Amino acid sequence: MRIVKYIKNAQLEIDHQPVPSTEVVITLLLGTMLLAFIVSQKVRQPYTLVLVFAGILLAASSVSSVAGFNTIYGQLVTGGLFVGLVLPPLLFESMMDISSSEFRAIARPALSLATVGVVVATVVTGLFLWKALGVPFYPSFLFAALISPTDTATVLEVFKRVNVPNRLARMMETEAGFNDATGITIFAIILASMTTSSLSLTSVFIDFLWIFGGGVLVGLGVALASRLLLRVLNDPIAECILTLAAVFGSYSVAEGLGASGLVAVSITGLTYGIIWAADESRRHREVLRNFWRILAFLANSIAFLTIGLATDLSNIIEFIIPIVIVFGAVLLARFVSVYSILGLIGIEKTRFPGSWKVTATLGGVRGAVSIVLAASLPASLADGDLLHTAVLGVSFISIVAQAYLLSRYARAKFATTTSSSRAAIGPESSVAPTST
SS3 of 341, please? Predict the structure, then answer.
């Protein structure tokens, strides 16, 4: 799996206006982030939501072209840099704080949602669009494959701000880190089946094993090699550089081998964090954590600004009714996948309560990854523009509506869980029977 190979098929419209210098673009980008942060504090709304609307306003104005934001969007989304530059820091920063006991507790449900759950959601969404709404077969299932994986950047941001039990948040974050392999495999299969008369199930299975398993192997290899180098380092700056090389190195190696770079980064973060936590002699933990918090904040800001730049609000308003119906289908598919899987798989021999299932359903937010995949659709594909509009519309509603509903629901159901105590919360303290 290489997302870039699909991105190369996209057609980037060339803007002939003068392109600002790199220094100007970076300055304006950081200035936009700072302004959005100030506005979010004044209006008491999530910073990322303000960034999305800032991106929408910029995309709708001439400022976007003059300031170079069109260049940013083109390079990140259509140019294929988003997945390789923005998501790895977010994943690593999140995964490095998961302990071995936490991962053992949430591994089965998280990985099941990331694999079987994506397949179930794709099938349910595709069937609903095809049978209930009368959308042609291939566009129905191609859209379903695009939209079924939860978005890494959005999920990580949402669950950092929502007051939920720690292991529930970790489960959702881990699912988001691993489900790209399943989504890309299904996406590639459907694209290939549109031009091929038959597909070999054996080859499909082998491809998925390599995409997922290859990412795991690369991530383990890079993390263990980093540990060996870590033993000879006793400087915080050197350790930060080492982790930076490990993150982007694992992604690049995995992608170069045709495996999942995001899975590789997730495994690197998990392994590195577990090894790091076990080594009580490390003296620079706080420096390293703060370094990655800053990188994750910048990456997250770019991610949500990119979502805003990609969103044509006037186009969404024009097709708002079908977009809302399609969003309902996506939410229904998420409901089916979550309840079918979490109804069968518990956490540490404890069944998931209804409150956790509702949270997992609402927490399956879609966003930038689906937009990137939609931008990679071949220009010659019939209904490509319609699919792109549907993905943008559903992603926008998902970010705005689901995040709001999740926040309200979490405040009502997990009011006694504070952010300072989340790390200590296990299933036994939060998985008491709860009504939905």
Answer: helix
